[in-house]
Design goal:
There is one protein chain. The protein is an all-alpha fold. The protein is built from nine helices and no strands. The protein has one domain. Helix 2 packs parallel to helix 8 (173-198) and helix 2 crosses helix 9. The termini are far apart.
């Protein structure tokens, strides 16, 4: 119990969580506005239906293949090129880029499988109760148990130059746990409203909107994080 109380009262941890929330808040606002606009266009803009229908056809035709390629492109390639061109990424070379893109391709399949499971359990309706149930399971089960830890661990491995030896030497288990906790809590400010917006669309459009949200989230947070470091 004393150890738990000491961990809860860790001011440095609280400070880092607060800083992370502040860094994510403005990108979050931008993403929510974008997402709400896209959902509104889908439901109220008849002119956009042919475009959305083409995306639905692509998703239903290629399934997990679509999710892998699109998430690799939006979550991996675009942020990677942006980070390289703006000098925010110290890792150079083809190998690191391939690992980064491969990670996001696999995560695209992972997220698609989870969305399908959610649809099987809760249905495909877009009513309030269904959306709330999916968001709660998404953010407080899937993200806590799997998505946030695996993402945080992957990015620390990337910071170590994809060297397992250096990665093991850089962080203690306590530091890794703190980092996962900080990552999980600080991204909730973006992804709880973000997933509510995503689940407001029909199932075939959820991965495309997730991809757009992911792409701009990675880019915007990298920009605001850099500004924070500068200050």
């Amino acid at each position: 119990m004393p150890g738990i109380l000491e961990w809860i009262g860790n001011r440095n941890l609280k400070q880092r969580i607060g800083e992370g929330i502040r860094v994510n808040l403005i990108p979050g606002l931008v993403l929510w506005i974008m997402g709400v606009c896209l959902v509104a266009i889908y439901y109220f803009g008849e002119f956009s239906r042919p475009w959305f229908n083409q995306i639905i056809i692509l998703k239903e035709t290629y399934g997990f293949g679509y999710s892998a390629v699109s998430t690799c492109f939006f979550g991996g390639l675009i942020p990677y090129v942006f980070m390289q061109l703006t000098g925010r990424d110290r890792l150079k070379g083809l190998g690191s880029g391939v690992i980064f893109l491969g990670y996001w391709a696999i995560r695209g399949i992972d997220v698609d499988a989870f969305y399908r499971l959610q649809a099987m359990v809760f249905g495909t309706e877009v009513d309030l109760l269904t959306i709330v149930a999916k968001v709660l399971v998404d953010q407080f089960v899937y993200c806590v148990v799997w998505a946030s830890p695996i993402t945080a661990l992957f990015y620390t491995w990337r910071e170590a130059g994809f060297s397992l030896k250096q990665w093991k030497g850089n962080k203690t288990w306590s530091e890794l746990f703190d980092m996962i906790l900080i990552f999980t809590v600080t991204t909730w400010v973006v992804w709880i409203p973000g997933t509510a917006i995503i689940y407001s669309l029909p199932s075939p459009l959820q991965i495309p909107l997730f991809n757009l949200t992911l792409c701009f989230f990675v880019i915007l947070v990298s920009v605001f994080s850099q500004k924070n470091k500068g200050k």
